Structure to design on (395 residues):
């Protein structure tokens, strides 16, 4: 059997929220039969009749199983302001002005606040000029170098939201953030920049390296960060959280579950030490640790446990987080609900996220989730169709 057909059956089965056992029962076969089918180990199957039945069960045209259309996702161009920010990173650093530290700080904080409010294009619009002037001022003081690092950290975080098209410049921005942070000598800036570098490793598929790098950095900087107040503790805790996410990259195994759990526990200890008050726009605290547990469980292919973990978090606690963190959590719970066949709940959470942060829902990975729900729901209602249309999808 052509292995591509097995891969496409697996793709659509997962998109429909079906386990291999579920799909096997619907096909009148065993889970092992499905494993062999998807793994390309059934050389005489599937016959055309088998493919037709599989297509009917998966609610897709037969052509989707015999062509690679299933894995194709339409390219989404970057918003113009985000594209301009990418261009600014790939051109020689523009010689900016030497500006007053307080003025530079005000402009960097404006971009950070725009980011925290999920106005990503507004932050992207200002960042090229901010980066240029921060470069022009960085040699003046360690504080200016720390502000340059913060501007690059924000650039990296923003670009990571736009998927493959912005991944390489995002990694570049993270590396520049770390260089500037090391020049500043500020452990909070170094830890915060290192977190973006770890995120870059995750986005490149180097999860184990990300987990090791973030955890090692946390251990190395811990004494300095613990003595740096709320901002230092928030930075330390977030390093452990990104390490926990990195630990999930190898898929579900006893080792990955143990490693991720240990890192979440480390973050929890820091959160207990800090309390709910967070620093540096991280939203770090006990609630953020609980939210990351949901994300980690989902990444470890345990969507049911992710749903249960999300239900243990009080709405008031989530409401106390920053808007960007709230919206991302809603999208995570929507993914978990979709995978556990709770599709109405998934639509509800996506609509909540859109009301809170339209630009977060417009990101490529979220648009793909909306498209999957559009295909999964037998008779999409006006709310889902409207959301899909606002995401640029045919509905």
């Amino acid at each position: 059997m052509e292995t591509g057909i097995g891969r496409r059956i697996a793709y659509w089965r997962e998109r429909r929220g079906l386990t291999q056992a579920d799909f096997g029962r619907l096909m009148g076969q065993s889970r092992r039969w499905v494993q062999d089918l998807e793994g390309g180990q059934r050389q005489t199957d599937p016959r055309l009749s088998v493919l037709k039945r599989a297509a009917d069960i998966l609610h897709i045209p037969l052509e989707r199983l015999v062509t690679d259309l299933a894995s194709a996702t339409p390219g989404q161009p970057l918003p113009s302001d985000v594209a301009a920010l990418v261009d600014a990173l790939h051109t020689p650093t523009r010689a900016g002005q030497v500006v007053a530290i307080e003025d530079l700080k005000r402009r960097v904080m404006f971009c950070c606040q725009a980011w925290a409010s999920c106005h990503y294009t507004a932050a992207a619009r200002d960042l090229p000029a901010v980066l240029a002037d921060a470069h022009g001022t960085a040699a003046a003081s360690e504080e200016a170098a720390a502000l340059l690092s913060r501007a690059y950290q924000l650039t990296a975080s923003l670009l990571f939201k736009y998927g493959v098209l912005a991944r390489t410049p995002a990694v570049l921005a993270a590396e520049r953030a770390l260089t500037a942070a090391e020049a500043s000598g500020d452990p909070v800036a170094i830890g915060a920049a290192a977190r973006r570098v770890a995120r870059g490793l995750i986005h490149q598929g180097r999860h184990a390296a990300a987990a090791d790098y973030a955890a090692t950095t946390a251990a190395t900087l811990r004494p300095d960060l613990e003595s740096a107040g709320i901002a230092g503790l928030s930075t330390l805790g977030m390093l452990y959280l990104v390490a926990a996410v990195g630990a999930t990259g190898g898929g579900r195994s006893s080792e990955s579950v143990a490693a991720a759990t240990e890192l979440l526990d480390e973050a929890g200890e820091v959160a207990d030490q800090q309390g709910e008050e967070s620093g540096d726009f991280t939203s770090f605290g006990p609630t953020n640790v609980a939210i990351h547990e949901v994300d980690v469980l989902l990444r470890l292919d345990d969507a049911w446990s992710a749903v249960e973990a999300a239900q243990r978090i009080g709405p008031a606690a989530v409401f106390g987080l920053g808007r960007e963190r709230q919206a991302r959590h809603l999208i995570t719970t929507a993914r978990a609900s979709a995978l556990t066949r709770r599709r109405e709940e998934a639509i509800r959470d996506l609509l909540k996220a859109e009301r809170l942060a339209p630009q977060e829902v417009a990101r490529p990975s979220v648009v793909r989730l909306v498209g999957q729900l559009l295909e999964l729901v037998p008779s999409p209602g006006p709310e889902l169709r409207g959301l899909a249309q606002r995401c640029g999808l045919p509905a």
About this structure: Residues 68-74 have pLDDT under 50 and may be disordered.
